[in-house]
Amino acid sequence: MVRRHLINMFCASMCLVLLAVPAASASLIAVPEGNRNAEQPSVPGASVKRTRQTKSSFDRKYEKIHALLKRDTKLRAKITEVADVYDIDPLHIAGALVGEHTYNVDAYDRLQSYYIKALAYATGGIDFDYDGEDVDDFIQRSEFDECMTLAGSFALWTCREMVWNKTFRGRQVGDKTYPDDRFSAVFFQPFYAGQTFGLGQLNPLTALKHTDEVNRISGHRKLSHRKGEEVYKAIMNPDITLAYVAAALRHSIDVYGEIAGFDISSNPGITATLYNVGNPDLRARTLANTNRQREAKGLKPQLPQENYYGWLVNDKIDDLRALF
Prior knowledge:
It is globular, with a radius of gyration of 20 Å. The protein has helices at 2-19, 45-53, 58-71, 73-85, 90-103, 112-122, 135-138, 153-168, 183-187, 204-218, 228-236, 238-260, 268-277, 280-296, 308-315, 317-321, and strands spanning 29-30, 129-130, 133-134, 172-173, 176-177, 262-263.
């Protein structure tokens, strides 16, 4: 009962946050360009190992995605167009792409390769399940009842993700023990855990969270967890996935203003960091709480900090700015 009460409180607060408009946007603290850390924070071992296994290096992978952006005028035009629609600097989108293809997977040499892959994933059925349990059946459990009152795909799937973390992750529920892993990795990556796809390296749960916003702004068909092949087609197709990348970045900018009181729209390294680590709402709330405590002690507010991924974006910002 206590857990259910906490979830209800969280869901209610999430709704208020998602609908909130800053009372005095002019009072937002602008986060300046550049990195707060003089040296790059440590790169996770998994990324280092993955890059070594492909006999590559971070420098080579960066040069490959930078070369694609520089060579492909059509791709740059698409980025600029979708950035304008979502009212963000195209450097935010470019930064997210650079970070993903430097520390996650190598970029393809041609944009056309992403279209070909999209067609391959769009054929045949793709089911989102775990150990024989379909996610559609899983979220009908009573533990998720609190989420059903929420409006909007972001609030709904964020609530479901929280229920997973609080109630199922790493726990035995009934006769089944669930992995101590992210909701997206357990139920939404049917090929292998940790895999992301496409130009924006999105995972399906991120796409499902932002589908209402992308439908409203870009007009793309809403995605459903019941139609996995359509989700993968969206995140693999550059014409669609860039809208989801932009929506995620726009959301991070908005919630950091609404919750934490920071304008991060001029720092692509911060938005890239949030694109990498996810959960911008909860991170903004944590930063806001930290700064309330600092204010009570007479200290200056702590600015948002870039991680290794965002640090690279800011470090290479002149290269990227020259492209746009």
